[in-house]
Each structure stands twice: as structure tokens, then as C-alpha cells.
Write a structure and sequence with these properties.
Elements lengths: L5 H18 L8 E5 L4 H17 L2 E8 L6 H15 L2 E6 H5 L3 H4 L7 H18 L4 E3 L4 H13 L23 E2 L7 H10 L16 H15 L3 H10 L12 E2 L6 E2 L5 H10 L7
Parallel strand pairs: 1-2, 1-4, 2-3, 4-5
Antiparallel strand pairs: 6-7
Helix pairs in contact: 1-8, 2-3, 7-9, 7-10
Length: about 290
């Protein structure tokens, strides 16, 4: 097997991210970008890339780490996030499910068919709330090409077309308190993110979440990897096919604010508050 040239590979990674940022105007001069930093390879690469581009694109940056409360797993990711942020000179703000909602993900894992369901709802809520409080103009996430394709196909399979507005490298601002998300790694395959981390000796948290095997995403990921192995190029073809839909008008979603927490919501009571009330009726949280 031909040995990878580190300099060439790094240039490919940086140029791909740079082209996405420029082509889709992910960042405007003077903006404040908040990065969701889990300590995993994708979020770490996102922080590295953006820290390198700060002068070129003229923006400031802060990172946020969320501790969901997953025993034996999240603590290692948080340690990595702290080290990476410190090494790059980026301020890190830490939040947790326990402090915000009153429970750990481990406390409620048996209540759902997949723990990824409440985790996703609470993570998105807490990331957005914190980013808004920090005065962020954009919230950068580590979603790579594989993540995007998986999400697109899962929504397509469920005929959940309203979720299509969440796809693409940049989301529009549809509510004053909903911070638009950007995805600098949108055209970078997951395997290339892993190669980048190993090739550069970057200390990232490679372990998979112990709850991930219960999700539909895990099954979709395995299916797509097998398909890509048999027919190389399938993933990028799917992404390019989806990219063409940007030429059509996106579905307009009217957002108000949750009556309980005040966060942006299309419902009277947001999904996070609905889940919290249900959980409080089902569990006794130890003091």
C-alpha cells in the first residue's frame, strides 16, 4: 500500500473545508463562531480547521462541550476537548445534562428504544441555548459527509420532508434565538477525518458511544459502508444528488417560543421540555 504523504493529505483536508466555507459563505467577517467540541475526531478537526482559518476569514471563536452523563465514555471526550482547546488557545465553555435538566443520560437510558433520541433533543437544545447566550452568529458542528448522507436517507425513508431544511452545509436563520449551524466538514468523508487524526498524531477520543448501536443511524451507517465497498463513489453521488435540491425552495417552518423554557419551537411546548416533564414523572433522581 502506498504511504500517504502527510503534507498533501493535510492540504486536501484544508482545501476541501476552505472551499465549502467560501462556496456556501459559511462565515462572514466579524462573526463569532461557536464550535460544538465533543473531543471526537470530527469536532476536533473542525476546531483545528477553523482555528487555522481565523485570520483568513476574520472571525472569533469559542468552543462548547456538553457532558451528557455517559459513564466511562464522556469523561474521556471532555478531557480531550479541554486539552485540544487549551493547545489551540480557544476558550472552552462546559455544560452538562445534569446541571441543565437535572439528570444524566444514563438515568433515562431505559425509557427509550434508543438513547440517541433524548440525547439528540437535549444536546441540540443545550448547544443552541449556550451558543445564543454567548452571542454566537453561527454554531459550527463536526458533521462530515457520511453524517449528512445518513441523516438525509433516514429522513427520506421516514418521509419526514420537514427535516430537509436541516440539511446542507449552512442553515438559514429562521428565528432570532435559533443560532444557524454550519458544517465545514460537509464534503469530507468520515474515514478521511480518521486518517487525518492518525496521520498527524492528534489526540482524539476514538471510542464509540455505548448507546450508538441502538440507533437507526448505526444501521444506516453499516449499510452505506457496505454499499460503498461494493460500489465506490456511492456516497459522494448521494451527496451531489441531494446538493441539487438546494435549487428548490425549502420548506418554511414557522417557529414560536416554548411556553415553558422560551427556546425556539414549532410547538407550544418544545420537545425538550416535553421529555423533561415525562422523565420527571418516571424517575427519582438521586440528590
Amino acid at each position: 500500500m502506498k504511504q500517504l504523504d502527510k503534507e498533501s493529505f493535510n492540504s486536501y483536508i484544508e482545501n476541501t473545508a476552505r472551499s465549502v466555507i467560501k462556496d456556501y459563505r459559511l462565515i462572514e467577517p466579524g462573526e463569532k463562531i461557536v464550535v460544538g467540541l465533543s473531543g471526537g475526531k470530527d469536532s476536533v478537526l473542525t476546531l483545528y480547521i477553523l482555528s487555522k482559518f481565523m485570520d483568513d476569514f476574520d472571525f472569533e471563536m469559542v468552543a462548547i462541550s456538553i457532558d451528557e452523563g455517559i459513564s466511562g465514555y464522556r469523561c474521556e471526550g471532555i478531557k480531550t476537548a479541554r486539552k485540544i482547546a487549551r493547545d489551540l488557545g480557544v476558550e472552552l465553555v462546559e455544560k452538562s445534562f445534569k446541571d441543565e435538566f437535572g439528570f444524566l443520560l444514563d438515568d433515562i437510558s431505559d425509557f427509550y428504544k434508543s438513547s440517541c433520541i433524548p440525547c439528540g433533543v437535549f444536546r441540540r437544545t443545550l448547544l443552541n441555548k449556550t451558543a445564543y447566550q454567548l452571542g454566537a452568529d453561527k454554531l459550527a458542528t463536526g458533521h462530515n459527509m457520511d453524517d449528512e448522507i445518513q441523516s438525509f436517507l433516514m429522513s427520506f425513508a421516514r418521509a419526514d420532508f420537514r427535516r430537509f431544511i436541516k440539511f446542507g452545509p449552512k442553515l438559514d436563520k429562521i428565528h432570532p434565538k435559533l443560532v444557524p449551524r454550519i458544517k465545514p466538514l460537509w464534503k469530507i468523508p468520515e474515514k478521511d477525518v480518521g486518517i487525518w487524526a492518525i496521520l498527524n498524531g492528534i489526540d482524539v477520543h476514538f471510542a464509540e458511544c455505548p448507546y450508538s448501536h441502538t440507533s437507526l443511524r448505526a444501521k444506516m451507517k453499516d449499510h452505506l459502508n457496505r454499499l460503498e465497498g461494493k460500489r465506490p463513489g456511492t456516497k459522494i453521488a448521494i451527496l451531489e444528488s441531494f446538493d441539487k435540491t438546494f435549487k428548490f425552495d425549502k420548506i418554511v417552518v414557522e417557529l414560536g417560543e416554548c411556553e415553558l423554557c422560551g427556546e425556539p419551537s414549532s410547538l407550544r411546548i418544545c420537545k425538550a421540555c416535553e421529555m423533561v416533564e415525562d422523565i420527571k414523572n418516571r424517575i427519582v433522581i438521586p440528590e
